[in-house]
Fold this sequence. Notes:
Distance between the termini: 25 Å
Order of helices and strands: HHHEEHHEEEEEEHEHEHEEEHEHEHH
Structural class: alpha+beta
Number of strands: 15
Helix content: 25-40%
CATH class of the largest domain: Alpha Beta
CATH architecture of the largest domain: 2-Layer Sandwich
CATH topology of the largest domain: Cell Division Protein Zipa, Chain: A
Shape: elongated
Amino acid sequence: MNRMALIIVGLLVIGIAAYFIFRPKNKSAIDRFYISTQGQSDERVKSLNLDKPSEDASYILDTSKLTFPKTKRETENVDYKADPETDWIINLVQVNGQTFDKKDLEKLFDKDWNTNFPSTIFGFSPVDKRWTYVFAGGVPDIYNKIQIAINVKGVYNEENPNYDPKKLDRYVIQLESIIKKYPTKLKIEQIETISKAIGKAKNLVELYNEFNKDAIIILKSGKPFNGALAWDALLSVGLRWGDGDLFHWTNNQDYGHDQHFSVWTTTDPGYFLPENIQSGQMNPTDLIFGFSIPRSADPKNVYTAMLNSVKYCQKRLGGTILNKDEQPFQEQTETKYLLDLIDKMKAKGIEPGSDKALKNY
């Protein structure tokens, strides 16, 4: 299975989980839940005559004004292995030089392990001569090296801020117990000490807290916007309704987050259902435009386009432009904050939209 297939499977699982976590826990919301393709969503909107904007302001979302780093195209022989920057790595070694069999590894890393010891198991295939996920579809059955990757941020307790080394030590204790069940004799090798892993975790958490920021611009009204007019304005600017029942500027490049920015609302239920728009039941008091800064492919230029979209919607709908704290929007101040944050990220080796940023933010 290539990388794209693995990503698609992962996104489907995450998407389904996210729905049940973030959607309102009421019967009507669950009754409306179903998975659909973007094409099906487009047909749904078309059937309600909500697919054609009254104006064409799509020039605001001009992708030619965005810049994307040149990235190397991956080949089928790319390695998938533990990341020493974010993982605490444990090697399993065959004492007598035998190979590992996937069927035996499945018994070793069973349901109990997967439930209580979050980790990713990588193996080096002597046939394909590369590292890959051991428990993915379409991968080899025989490996001569095994890596157990544990994300070091798991040692951090956010509720009672501290770093608990016992959360890593228990992996070694459990491994020492279960490898006795393996058909051949194995030994455990730690790539680095637990204390070094704790230090790495502290650095990652500090970076996360410093840079995990969203760019937010709010268009707010003292009285509800006309829902149909708000829908039309968002459609006119070139946004597309779909994923999560929100509006998005979709990123069609193979770099950065899937959406350049999205639009939601604090008006219940927090998203837009075309049926409710058409019936006049959904008239939001605000429109919230936003994106994750570290995950953005081009945060500077995306922000400019997003602000211009807000200004366009203000002309159509009225309302006041506010910042994320619902204070009067100061364009120069907000732009400077964004640019300063981007510079600080790059100074610490974090390129917005990169695989590293997508993985950690």
